[in-house]
Amino acid sequence: MTESNRLSSAFSKPHPALVCFVTAGDGDTAANLDALVEGGADVIELGMPFTDPMADGPAIQAANLRALARRTTTADIFALAEQFRLRHPDVPLILMGYANPMIRRGPEWFAEECAKAGVDGVICVDIPPEEDEALGPALRTKGIAPIRLATPTTDAKRLPAVLEGSDGFVYYVSVAGITGKQQAATASIEEAVGKLKASTDLPIAVGFGVRTPEQASAIAKVADGVVVGSALVELVGKYGADAPAALRELTSALADAVHSAR
Amino acid sequence: MLCQSGAMNAPNSFRNQPDDRGHFGDYGGRYVAETLMPLILDLEREYRAAQADPAFKAQFDDLLEHYVGRPSPLYFAERLTEAVGGAQIWFKRDELNHTGAHKINNCIGQILLAIRMGKTRIIAETGAGQHGVATATVCARFGLPCVIYMGAEDVRRQSPNVFRMKLLGAEVIPVTSGGATLKDAMNEGLRDWVANVHDTFYIIGTAAGPHPYPEMVRDFQSVIGKEAREQMLSRIDRLPDLLVACIGGGSNALGLFHPFLDDADVKMLGVEAGGHGLDGDEHAASLLGGAPGVLHGNKTYLLQDEDGQITEGHSISAGLDYPGIGPEHAWLKDTGRVEYTSVTDKEALEGFQLLCRTEGIIPALEPSHAIHAVAERAKTMRDDQIILANLCGRGDKDIFTVAEALGVEI
């Protein structure tokens, strides 16, 4: 299994990592991505728009629809990734999305395109370990990290299956629910992260419902990384092509909070 | 499980799917978010326990008999047969069930399972409203709170059913995301479920979704085919030559077909909604006009573009207006065991009127697709041959749509 150097470097810094999400094709995506990097994001998550984003709340649903209304294609997403890689050779880039657009032309095709574009990892919401063969082997062959999700419902019996074959980092979904809604209590997150760390050497990043620097700081005290999505995506929805300045500002505040948490 | 007769030259039984991971060949499976996965595994364990529990079956059978009104009649449509000319046409009368469609069979099974699992809140999605009404009905019967997600567009098209659900005590939530139809209602149902996994049971209305739903819904609906098989044998001491059923997600068709799958001499025809025709984009024929992919927890044929974005289905029948299909149908298509065809909106309206006038039965628009296909096939068959079609729903809910399509003001 190939470990992504960029991802492991991002989680080897002396401080916790800030992981920032925006949707591909929403607003001026290239400028949005640059703003996240300039603001201090350590890892970039680029959302692949899908017509049926079952795990997402209203903010990211709306971003998906905006991107699709502008006829964003899979080819456009890989072009964004490739150009990002040229501008930012050292910043890890992850694609996050749903199974169908990823496997439409076959998992090998998708993994090959990821490799060509310099994508470091892939989070697929609706491929659990039980269906790993639909995408996992193709990604591993190309050295792309399949990043799995663990949730509050993932019990001790299932956890080894989730961790087995996961790479890059483990994304802990802090609440049983959809993106952008309520946040879990820090105490429960600390307990969950502790259990995960007892079972894996992979870094643990925590997301779902993290919106403010205060929340991000509290999570960064107990986790290796903090994922922020909906709050950033809402800025793209609000400011459209003018979003980069607002994204830079929020990312900067989040980065300060996360990087100085401990 | 071995076949009962006639399939000696088939390599395997067609009745032993899915495998233990919920796969029907390449299709089916459990493509869900991790949050739901433990629940899906729980559900499967509970379903296996229920299957092995005679008390569960006894309660299911008792409710089907005394509450739903089963067995539904097997009826020889004499005047339709004469009008068409050719094979004898028989109907399984599942439109006579309580709530007016086959949907209730599955809802009874699932709510018994929900109660067995200690769940205290029921959610469901609905398109035409038939599954919503059936779910609201069983929730009222067992005193459980019920939330129905329904596309805002369907709420508008199917207002009588919306009122029925409300009368039965359900909360109907109009879904405005996406195209505001059935698939969007299902997305919203899954979002609710993922946020309320601790107390909520999702009653999926068709033989689709993550394993074990496709298998479970098929099993509950198989009462249709089991009864029909026995009724055929006791009435005329032979099996039909051809089974016909309409397909949206495909639960009524699987319910009829599954008990006959290993009867090699029984041919089967599934009828998809052809909308304005398969040469354009406005249809809901996932098998004939779609391609394999992953949506709503299972791998199956989907209406989608080259990038895997899901496209909206169209049909005059809101109950067939879904861009996917149950995974077992995908497998039955690829194996060639079942033949699939499509019938347009216009042809379905002809089938609707034909049955009204020849048999005094107002069918739902969904089985009207099957009726048109039955009439076409019957003409090509001998008069000693038998077609058995599932009349899966009655048409009261559709009279406004039909009037509009025929240019009649009521």
What is the secondary structure topology, with strand pairs?
The complex is a heterodimer of chains A (262) and B (410).
Chain A lengths: L4 H6 L6 E7 L5 H11 L3 E5 L10 H12 L4 H14 L5 E5 L1 H5 L3 H11 L3 E4 L11 H6 L3 E2 L2 E2 L8 H5 L6 E4 L12 H14 L4 E4 L5 H8 L4 E4 L1 H10 L3 H17 L3
Parallel strand pairs in A: 1-2, 1-9, 2-3, 3-4, 4-5, 6-7, 7-8, 8-9
Chain B lengths: L22 E2 L2 E5 L5 H15 L2 H15 L5 E3 L1 H7 L3 E5 L10 H14 L4 E6 L3 H13 L3 E6 H6 L1 H9 L3 E5 L6 H14 L4 E3 L10 H9 L1 H14 L5 E6 L3 H7 L9 E9 L10 H4 L1 E5 L1 E6 L24 H9 L3 E6 H15 L5 H15 L6 E5 L8 H8 L4
Parallel strand pairs in B: 4-14, 5-6, 5-8, 6-7, 9-10, 9-14, 10-13
Antiparallel strand pairs in B: 1-2, 2-12, 3-4, 11-12
Helix pairs in contact in B: 2-4, 3-14, 4-5, 4-9, 5-7, 9-11, 10-11, 14-15
Give structural notes.
The complex is a heterodimer of chains A (about 260) and B (about 400). Chain A has about 260 residues and is α/β, with parallel strands linked by helices. Chain A has one domain: Aldolase class I (TIM Barrel, Alpha-Beta Barrel), CATH 3.20.20. Chain A is about 45% helix and about 15% strand. Chain A has 12 helices and 9 strands. Chain A has a 9-stranded parallel β-sheet with strand order 5-4-3-2-1-9-8-7-6. In chain A, helix 2 (about 30-40) links the parallel strand 1 and strand 2 (about 45). Chain A is globular. The model of chain A has no long low-confidence stretch (mean pLDDT about 95). Chain B folds into 2 domains: about 30-65 and about 105-215, Rossmann fold, CATH 3.40.50.1100; about 70-100 and about 220-405, Rossmann fold (3-Layer(aba) Sandwich), CATH 3.40.50.1100. With about 400 residues, chain B is α/β, with parallel strands linked by helices. In chain B, the strands form 3 sheets. A 6-stranded mixed β-sheet of chain B has the order 3-4-14-9-10-13, sandwiched between helices. A 4-stranded antiparallel β-sheet of chain B has the order 1-2-12-11. Chain B has 16 helices and 14 strands. In chain B, helix 4 packs across helix 5 (about 130-140), helix 9 packs across helix 11 (about 250-255) and helix 14 (about 345-360) crosses helix 15. In chain B, helix 11 links the parallel strand 9 and strand 10 (about 265-275). Chain B is globular. Chain B is about 40% helix and about 20% strand. Chain B has helices spanning about 35-50, 55-70, 80-85, 105-115, 130-140, 150-155, 160-165, 180-195, 215-220, 225-235, 250-255, 285-290, 325-335, 345-360, 365-380, 400-405; strands spanning about 25, 25-30, 75, 90, 120-125, 145-150, 170-175, 200, 240-245, 265-275, 290-295, 295-300, 340-345, 385-390. The interface between A and B is large, with 42 and 38 residues.
